[in-house]
């Protein structure tokens, strides 16, 4: 991991998402200093604004903030679940980072999504198709990336499920019959099926009990060290952030209020809100 | 005195008024121009309910001319209720000659089968389609299936085939096996058996599909590639009749219907009634030829 200016993996500039119809004063009248992300004039909602950062290969970046701070919106826009309002993003493995991926056609976006990215949602129902078996869910991602051999699809799915400690005998069962932790592990298998260089984790441990949480976090950490995937981890839970991430951005009311090395921010938070977050940690 | 001739005939030729026929023909032209693409159309009222063959009937009535010889089959049979009633309707509304003979017909309407005898460039076959959308079983929202077709995003379709293989050891889509038309659109060939699917490929005939209830038309023009979806290692297969044979003729190289007897036993009979008649009378027939049925034996040795 060398951090120099040029070897970034993902570069994001001015990423903004506004719901409703903003006017030219909307951005100036919202944000942490106003304590609100609703524009007083137009009542449009600024989910997030002016998000700029670089992510380096193999790095784990955390995004932390209270609910409604816009952290999930950021990754969902980067994964093309939501349309951006403004902003650009470049991904190095895609055309050597020369093309703004957010401007691409739906077909190209789907290619990027299926070949170069993975996403693990908080709710397994968002990331998995409960009508398909867990093997079928992994197959979906592989087929989307152009694999058309059932034998090798099944071998790869079995391999991934072993890696994520889901019993391979349950490969042909539907995820609806699994426990929450297992569903989450199937979702992780699906997300990393095509060895993407970039993985988004959106509140992956929220809603799991503590021992399962620890196992899932262990798994993510292990995958990160063995496969060297760069990750963006979204969480409101500072202990998850501390355990997983190298660098962290603190968000409030749709803006980044502070960013820096995780240890530094947890030890010595500068912004008022980060201080509040850290001091609220049990 | 001015004579009003407008109402001297109770119905227009072929029942539907000319403006509506023109609309259907225009949509058919579009469908032929984009093989496998579903084109919305008016689906006008008919004296039968939508979903009972109205789609096929609309196309038939829009393209039929006074010289046409009309044949209609329902699951291969000229004699089933649906076929008989629609035949009589078309006959009364057009005065066209009707026939059972596949080779004599110029326009054939069908429900769930293609004739066993090969059709020629001079013939048109019209399918009655209940569910035109092949992606419906994997995606319930229309706006999403439209998008998936537009972007040729058919991964989910393949996943459903994968699931079928995993669950049953083979791809079990019995009827309406999804096909790729002209390398672009995935199409539901209406619920024809797998047996008929290879006959769509590079065929000499124009295939027209009409779904009256869903208000969609689509087409496969002559000499178009139609390939069943399959994996590299799990392939499309047609129905296997190697252990059975038509009980009337002993013939095995045709799609067979299974008949249950009162005692619980079962026997098989050729599904295409005209083909069965010809076989029984030992007439000359020219069947479709494709890589699946070419290697089958016609009779037990």
From TrEMBL, chain A:
<dbReference type="InterPro" id="IPR003593">
    <property type="entry name" value="AAA+_ATPase"/>
</dbReference>
<protein>
    <submittedName>
        <fullName>Putative phosphonate transport system ATP-binding protein</fullName>
    </submittedName>
</protein>
<dbReference type="InterPro" id="IPR017871">
    <property type="entry name" value="ABC_transporter-like_CS"/>
</dbReference>
<feature type="domain" description="ABC transporter">
    <location>
        <begin position="10"/>
        <end position="278"/>
    </location>
</feature>
<keyword id="KW-0547">Nucleotide-binding</keyword>
<dbReference type="GO" id="GO:0016887">
    <property type="term" value="F:ATP hydrolysis activity"/>
</dbReference>
<dbReference type="Pfam" id="PF00005">
    <property type="entry name" value="ABC_tran"/>
</dbReference>
<dbReference type="GO" id="GO:0005524">
    <property type="term" value="F:ATP binding"/>
</dbReference>
<dbReference type="InterPro" id="IPR012700">
    <property type="entry name" value="PhnK"/>
</dbReference>
<keyword id="KW-0067">ATP-binding</keyword>
<dbReference type="GO" id="GO:0019700">
    <property type="term" value="P:organic phosphonate catabolic process"/>
</dbReference>
<dbReference type="InterPro" id="IPR027417">
    <property type="entry name" value="P-loop_NTPase"/>
</dbReference>
<dbReference type="InterPro" id="IPR003439">
    <property type="entry name" value="ABC_transporter-like_ATP-bd"/>
</dbReference>
Automatic annotation (TrEMBL), chain B:
<dbReference type="GO" id="GO:0051539">
    <property type="term" value="F:4 iron, 4 sulfur cluster binding"/>
</dbReference>
<dbReference type="InterPro" id="IPR010306">
    <property type="entry name" value="PhnJ"/>
</dbReference>
<protein>
    <submittedName>
        <fullName>Alpha-D-ribose 1-methylphosphonate 5-phosphate C-P lyase</fullName>
    </submittedName>
</protein>
<dbReference type="GO" id="GO:0019700">
    <property type="term" value="P:organic phosphonate catabolic process"/>
</dbReference>
<keyword id="KW-0456">Lyase</keyword>
<dbReference type="Pfam" id="PF06007">
    <property type="entry name" value="PhnJ"/>
</dbReference>
<dbReference type="GO" id="GO:0016829">
    <property type="term" value="F:lyase activity"/>
</dbReference>
């Amino acid at each position: 991991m060398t951090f120099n200016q040029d070897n970034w993996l993902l570069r994001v500039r001015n990423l903004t998402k506004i719901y409703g119809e903003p006017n030219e004063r909307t951005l100036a009248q919202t944000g942490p200093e106003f304590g609100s992300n609703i524009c007083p004039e137009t009542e449009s909602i600024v989910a997030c604004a002016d998000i700029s950062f670089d992510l380096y290969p193999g790095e784990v970046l955390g995004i932390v903030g209270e609910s409604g701070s816009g952290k999930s919106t950021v990754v969902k826009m980067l994964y093309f679940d939501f349309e951006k309002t403004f902003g650009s993003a470049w991904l190095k493995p895609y055309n050597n980072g020369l093309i703004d991926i957010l401007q691409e056609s739906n077909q190209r976006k789907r290619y990027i999504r299926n070949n170069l990215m993975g996403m693990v949602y908080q709710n397994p129902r968002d990331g998995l198709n409960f009508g398909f078996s867990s093997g079928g869910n992994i197959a979906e991602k592989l087929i989307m990336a152009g694999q058309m051999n059932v034998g090798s699809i099944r071998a790869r799915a079995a391999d991934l499920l072993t890696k994520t400690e889901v019993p391979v005998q349950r490969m042909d069962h539907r995820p609806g019959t699994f426990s929450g932790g297992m569903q989450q592990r199937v979702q992780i298998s699906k997300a990393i099926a095509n060895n993407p260089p970039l993985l988004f984790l959106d509140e992956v441990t929220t809603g799991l009990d503590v021992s399962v949480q620890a196992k899932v976090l262990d798994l993510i950490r292990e995958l990160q060290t063995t496969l060297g995937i760069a990750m963006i981890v979204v969480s409101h839970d500072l202990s998850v952030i501390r355990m997983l991430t190298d660098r962290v951005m603190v968000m409030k009311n749709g803006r980044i209020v502070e960013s820096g090395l995780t240890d530094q921010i947890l030890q010595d938070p500068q912004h008022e809100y980060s201080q509040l977050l850290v001091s609220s940690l049990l | 005195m001015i004579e009003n001739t407008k109402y001297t005939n109770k119905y227009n030729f072929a029942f539907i008024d000319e403006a509506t026929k023109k609309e259907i023909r225009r949509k058919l032209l579009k469908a032929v121009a984009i093989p496998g693409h579903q084109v919305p159309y008016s689906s006008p009222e008919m004296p039968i309910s939508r979903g009972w063959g109205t789609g096929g009937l609309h196309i038939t009535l829009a393209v039929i001319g006074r010289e046409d010889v009309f044949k209609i089959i329902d699951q291969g049979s000229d004699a089933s209720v649906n076929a008989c009633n629609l035949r009589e309707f078309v006959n009364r509304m057009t005065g066209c000659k009707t026939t059972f003979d596949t080779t004599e017909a110029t326009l054939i309407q069908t429900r769930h089968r293609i004739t066993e005898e090969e059709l020629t460039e001079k013939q048109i076959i019209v399918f009655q389609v209940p569910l035109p959308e092949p992606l419906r079983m994997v995606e319930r929202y229309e706006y999403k299936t439209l998008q998936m077709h537009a972007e040729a995003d058919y991964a989910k379709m393949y996943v459903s085939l994968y699931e079928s293989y995993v669950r049953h050891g083979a791809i079990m889509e019995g009827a309406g096996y999804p096909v790729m038309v002209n390398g672009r659109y995935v199409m539901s060939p209406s619920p024809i058996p797998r047996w008929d699917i290879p006959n769509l490929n590079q065929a000499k005939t124009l295939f027209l599909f009409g779904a009256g209830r869903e208000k969609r038309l689509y087409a496969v023009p002559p000499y178009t590639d139609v390939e069943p979806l399959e994996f590299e290692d799990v392939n499309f297969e047609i129905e296997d009749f190697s252990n059975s044979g038509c009980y009337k003729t002993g013939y095995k190289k045709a799609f067979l219907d299974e008949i249950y007897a009162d005692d619980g036993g079962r026997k098989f009979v050729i599904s295409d009634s005209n083909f069965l008649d010809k076989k029984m009378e030992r007439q000359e027939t020219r069947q479709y030829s494709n890589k699946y049925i070419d290697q089958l034996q016609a009779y037990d040795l």
